[in-house]
Design goal:
This protein is of the alpha/beta class. The protein has helices spanning about 5-10, 20-40, 50-75, 80-105, 110-125, 130-135, 150-175, 180-205, 205-210, 210-215, 215-235, 240-255, 265-280, 290-300, 300-315, 325-345, 350-375, 380-390, 400-410, 440-455, 480-495, 510-515, 525-530, 545-565, 600-615, 630, 655-675; strands spanning about 420, 430-435, 460, 475, 505, 530-535, 565-570, 595-600, 625, 635-640, 640, 645.
C-alpha cells in the first residue's frame, strides 16, 4: 500500500465532528503547495502567498460547519471545542518550537538567538502577527532571517477561534430578532471587516498584512460559505466551476503578482476559488481527491510548520544552493510529524492531555522570553566564539547631538534628513562633509576617526534609500517624493552655511538608483515595489531612471564646482545580495561557497553605471574619483571576510571595521584635497 493511501485511511479513522471529505484535503494540499512553492521558488510562483488566504477561508468554512452541527445536535461544548483545537495544533507546534530553540542554541549568534527567543514566545502564545507588524514586511528579504515568521497566520487563526464560536452562538440565540440571523449578521461582519482591511492596507500595507482586523474577513468569508453562500454555489452547473478554475490560471500570475497585501485582489481570487472548489468538493471530485493532493492536505499543517523553518536556516547559514534538499527534508519531516505526532495526538480524547499540551506550549513560550531577556544566552560555549565576529555586524546610530545642534541652528528646526553626525556643533569649524545616502553614513564613521586624530572637524548629511543629489527626489508615491525633496533641500541649506567647508566626499549607491532594481534575494522586495524619481509620477513617457540619475549627479557636481569645493566621488562597494552573517564561522558548519564573489559578477551589475559616472566626473576639474571596488576586491575576487575581518554589516553596507580600513586607505588623498 502506498504511503498516501495509508495516510488517507488513517485520516478517515480519526474521531471527527464532520464526515470526512477527501476533496477538502485536496484543497488543503493545493493551498500548502502554493505557499511552499512561493517560498522556495518565488520567481516562478510569486502569487503563491495566497495559499495562506485559502487556508483562512477553509478554516472559517469548516469550523463554522462544526459549530453549527454541534448546535443543531444540542451538543456544543466550549471545553470540547478547545480541547480539539489543542490536540490538533499544539503537539506539532511544540516540537517545532523546541527544535528551533535547539538549532538556535547550537548555531545562532546571541542577538539572533535573542530575537528567536522573542519570536518563540509570540508564536507559542499566538500573537506572532502583532510582533511582526512592527518588525518587517512579509516580502522583505530579511524576512528569511526570521525562522518563525510564517507562524503569523497560526496566530490569526487562533485569535479567530477564540472569538468566533461565541459570536456564532449569540447570533443563533438571537435568530428570531431579524437582522441578527447568523447568515445576515455574518455577511454584515464580512462586509465591514473587508472595508476595514482595504482602509488599513491603503494606509499601511505592511502592518495590514499581519493585522487581525485586516485579515478576519477571510475566515468570515469561509463562514459565509458554510452558512448560506456555499449552498448556492453547490447548485451551480459544473462547467461554471471549471470555468472559474480556468480564470484562476490566468488571474493568479497576472493579478496577484504583487509584493504587498491587497484585499481586493485577494478577495477576487478567493471568490473564484470558492466557485471552483465548493461544487467539486460537494461532489467529492476525484481530481481533488487524488492521493497526492490528499497526502499533501493531510500533512499540510506539519509541512507548513517545517518548510519555512528549514528554508530560513538555510538562508541564515548561507546554504541556499541546497534549497531543493531543504524542500525534500520538509516533505519528510511533514510525513514523520503527521504519522508520529499529529495522528496519535488527534486520537486522544482526554481533557487532561489537552491541558498538558496547553501548559507545555505556554512553558515553551516562557523559555523563549527568558532567552530574549538573557540576551540570547551569550555565555553559551559556542556564543563566546561568536562575540568578536558578530560585533562587526553592528551599525552605528544615525545621528549625534553635535550635528543636530548644528543643523537646527541653521534650519531653525530639527533636521528632517535621516543621517546627521558631526564632530563639532560649530558651523564655522566644519572643513569637510560626507554627503549621500546610507553608504555615506558608514563611510563617515571611519573617516571621522582618522580626521579627529588630525584635529580636522567634519560632518555627515545624508538620507536613507535616496541619493542626496540636487533634484534626485525619490519615493514609492508622490508624498514620499515630497518628503525626499524636503530632506535633500535641507541638506543643501545646511551646506550653504558652512563657510569654511573645503572638501566634500560624495557617495551613494548607483545601480539601484539607475536601474530601480534591487540586487539579489536581499532586495527582491525592492525590485517588486521600487522607488521612483518625481517625473515617474507625472506620467513621463520617456522615463529613464539611469538618465535622471546621471543628470542629477551632474547638477550636484556643478553646484559644488560653483562653491569652489573639492569633491572626492566615492563609487560604491560591491553588493552581496545576501546577509553577511552567513559568512561568519559558525560552530560545526563550513563556510558557504558564496562568500568569495567573482569580480566579473560585480562588474556585470556595477561596471556600466560606474563608467558613465566617471564620464560625468571627467567634466569637473575639482572632482577625484575613488572606486571602493579596488579596496574590496583583487583582480579576480571580491571578499566578504578578509584576514578575519568582516567587511560588511549587511548585504550592501560596509562594516565599521571596513570603514576604518577604507579611511586609512583614503587618508593621503583626504589630506591632499584638504590642502589643495
Amino acid at each position: 500500500m502506498n504511503p498516501a493511501m495509508s495516510n488517507l485511511r488513517s485520516a478517515i479513522s480519526f474521531p471527527r465532528s464532520l464526515e470526512y471529505n477527501p476533496a477538502l484535503d485536496g484543497i488543503r494540499g493545493i493551498a500548502v503547495a502554493l505557499v511552499v512553492l512561493f517560498h522556495y521558488l518565488p520567481n516562478l510562483f510569486p502569487f503563491g502567498y495566497v495559499g495562506v488566504d485559502l487556508f483562512f477561508v477553509l478554516s472559517g468554512y469548516l469550523i463554522t460547519q462544526v459549530i453549527l452541527k454541534k448546535l443543531e445536535q444540542g451538543r456544543f461544548s466550549f471545553a470540547e471545542f478547545y480541547r480539539n483545537r489543542a490536540r490538533r495544533l499544539f503537539p506539532a507546534l511544540s516540537i517545532l518550537l523546541l527544535a528551533t530553540l535547539g538549532i538556535g542554541y547550537l548555531f545562532l549568534f546571541p542577538q539572533e538567538y535573542a530575537q528567536l527567543g522573542l519570536h518563540t514566545n509570540s508564536s507559542a502564545w499566538y500573537y506572532q502577527n502583532f510582533r511582526l507588524m512592527h518588525e518587517i514586511g512579509y516580502w522583505d528579504a530579511a524576512a528569511l532571517t526570521k525562522p518563525l515568521l510564517h507562524l503569523w497566520s497560526l496566530a490569526i487563526e487562533e485569535q479567530f477561534y477564540l472569538v468566533w464560536p461565541t459570536l456564532l452562538i449569540l447570533f443563533t440565540l438571537a435568530e428570531g430578532r431579524g437582522w441578527l440571523k447568523p447568515p445576515r449578521a455574518t455577511a454584515v461582519m464580512l462586509a465591514l471587516f473587508f472595508i476595514a482591511a482595504e482602509l488599513l492596507a491603503t494606509r499601511d500595507s505592511q502592518a495590514a498584512f499581519y493585522h487581525t482586523l485586516a485579515r478576519v474577513w477571510e475566515p468570515l468569508f469561509g463562514a459565509t460559505l458554510a452558512l448560506f453562500l456555499g449552498a448556492w454555489l453547490e447548485r451551480l452547473p459544473r462547467f461554471i466551476s471549471w470555468f472559474a478554475f480556468a480564470v484562476i490560471i490566468f488571474y493568479a500570475p497576472l493579478v496577484l503578482n504583487v509584493g504587498y497585501y491587497d484585499p481586493v485582489r485577494i478577495g477576487g481570487f478567493l471568490f473564484l476559488a470558492s466557485v471552483w472548489f465548493i461544487p467539486l468538493s460537494h461532489d467529492r471530485n476525484r481530481w481533488l481527491g487524488h492521493p497526492v493532493l490528499v497526502w499533501l492536505g493531510l500533512t499540510s499543517y506539519s509541512l507548513y510548520l517545517w518548510h519555512f523553518l528549514i528554508l530560513s536556516f538555510l538562508f541564515i547559514f548561507g546554504y541556499e544552493a541546497y534549497n531543493l534538499v531543504g524542500l525534500l527534508a520538509s516533505l519528510l519531516l511533514a510525513w514523520a510529524s503527521f504519522i508520529f505526532i499529529e495522528a496519535p495526538a488527534r486520537r486522544k480524547k482526554s481533557y487532561g492531555f489537552a491541558l498538558v499540551l496547553t501548559t507545555l506550549l505556554a512553558f515553551i513560550g516562557g523559555i523563549g522570553y527568558s532567552i530574549y531577556s538573557l540576551g540570547g544566552l551569550p555565555q553559551r560555549p559556542v556564543a563566546k566564539a561568536y562575540k568578536i565576529q558578530s560585533s562587526q555586524l553592528i551599525r552605528e546610530p544615525k545621528t549625534n547631538e553635535d550635528c543636530l545642534k548644528l543643523s537646527s541652528s541653521i534650519l531653525d528646526k530639527p533636521p528632517a534628513f535621516d543621517y546627521c553626525k558631526a564632530s563639532t556643533d560649530n558651523p564655522q569649524g566644519i572643513t569637510y562633509a560626507v554627503v549621500g545616502d546610507s553608504h555615506a553614513e558608514v563611510l563617515y564613521n571611519g573617516i571621522r576617526e582618522v580626521m579627529d586624530k588630525k584635529n580636522i572637524q567634519g560632518a555627515l548629511f545624508s538620507n536613507s534609500g535616496k541619493p542626496a543629489y540636487l533634484g534626485g527626489y525619490r519615493g514609492r508615491k508622490p508624498s514620499d517624493v515630497q518628503a525626499s525633496k524636503l530632506k535633500i533641500d535641507q541638506i543643501y541649506r545646511v551646506l550653504e552655511k558652512l563657510d569654511n567647508l573645503s572638501l566634500v566626499l560624495l557617495t551613494t549607491r548607483m545601480a539601484l538608483y539607475a536601474t530601480e532594481e534591487g540586487f539579489g534575494e536581499s532586495e527582491r522586495s525592492f525590485t517588486q515595489n521600487p522607488t521612483h524619481y518625481a517625473s515617474y509620477f507625472k506620467g513621463s513617457k520617456d522615463y529613464n531612471p539611469e538618465k535622471l540619475f546621471l543628470q542629477y549627479l551632474d547638477r550636484t557636481l556643478t553646484y559644488f564646482e560653483r562653491r569652489g569645493l573639492n569633491v572626492i566621488l566615492v563609487l560604491e562597494n560591491p553588493e552581496l545580495g545576501f546577509p553577511p552573517s552567513s559568512c561568519l564561522q559558525r560552530a560545526f558548519l563550513p563556510l558557504p561557497r558564496r562568500c568569495l564573489i567573482p569580480r566579473s559578477r560585480v562588474d556585470a551589475r556595477l561596471g556600466d553605471i560606474k563608467q558613465k559616472v566617471r564620464e560625468v566626473a571627467k567634466r569637473f576639474s575639482n572632482v577625484k574619483v575613488v572606486d571602493l571596488e579596488d579596496f574590496f576586491c583583487d583582480n579576480q575576487r571580491c571578499y566578504v571576510v578578509r584576514n578575519g575581518t568582516m567587511l560588511y554589516a549587511d548585504d550592501d553596507h560596509m562594516s565599521l571595521t571596513a570603514s576604518r580600513e577604507v579611511a586609512r586607505w583614503l587618508e593621503p588623498l583626504l589630506l591632499q584635497e584638504l590642502d589643495r
